[in-house]
Amino acid sequence: MQIVNLKLPEFAFLDGQCHLGDTLEARDVVLHIRTATIIEFFDADAVSLNDDVPHVNFTHKNIYDIDEKKTCALHHCTTLDVATDEKYIIDNVLTPAISWYCDYMNWEDKEILKDLRTEYLSDNN
Known about the structure:
Number of strands: 7
Largest sheet: 5 strands, antiparallel
Distance between the termini: 48 Å
Mean pLDDT: 93
Radius of gyration: 18 Å
Low-confidence stretches: none
Number of helices: 1
Strand content: 25-35%
Strand order of the largest sheet: 1-4-5-7-6
Order of helices and strands: EEEEEEEH
Number of domains: 1
Oligomer: single chain
Shape: globular
């Protein structure tokens, strides 16, 4: 019998691939697993949220030293009451999600650079 590690990460992207196509195409939707909270990241200038939607605007300085203005917004939280626990959600779910997402964006930029270097080297050899 094989022992399986059942530990889950704190955050995970939601994948919309199914029989209906990619229902989350070009969207960054994330699940905070511990609280069953669904979060979405937007370019700050591409979203207009209702006043009652908990969200955090932030600026991410990417690896090229360019500021990217983003918004992290709450879609749904199964385990907490948004009306009474909004500060807790912002401090303990959205803010750590922003840090996780910024780390992801840095990793993604580095992967793109690595692919470009590999392509350049293969084209010039």
